[in-house]
Amino acid sequence: MRVLFSLLFAALLGAVQALSSTGSRLLVVIEELAEKEKYGTFWGDLESRGYRLFFESPKSEALRLFKHGERAYDHLLLLPPKSKGLGPNLTPQILLEFVNNAGNILLGLSATSPTPAAISSLLLELDIHLPPDRNSVVVDHFSYDEKSAGDKHDVLLMKSPKSLRPDVKNYFAQNGPIVVPRAVGHVLDNASPLLAPILRAQSTSYAYNPKDENDEEPFAVGEQLSLVSAFQARNSARFTVLGSTEMLEDEWFNAQVKSSAFGGKTVATANRNFASSLSAWTFQELGVLKVGRVEHYLNDASEKSGTGNSSALGTAQINPKIYRIKNDVTFTIELSEYDMDKLVPFVPAPADTIQLEFSMLSPFHRLALQPTSHTANSTLFSTSFTLPDQHGIFNFRVNYKRPFLTNIDEKRTVTVRHFAHDEWPRSFVISAAWPWIGGIGVTAVGWLAFVALWLWSEPVRGKGKGAKKVQVHESSEYSDLTIACAGATYRVHEAIICPRSEFFAAACRHDKASRLRDPGLEGESILWQEAIERKVDLVCDHSEAVAAMIHYFYHLDYAEQVPKLSKPCRHYLEFPDQLRSFEKQLTAHWNDAEFIPALYVAYQNTPEDEKFLRRAAADALNAHAELLGKPEVQAAMYEINGLSYELLKRSMKRLKELMEELGLDTTRYRDIVHYLSS
Question: What is the pTM (predicted TM-score) of this model?
Answer without folding.
Answer: 0.62
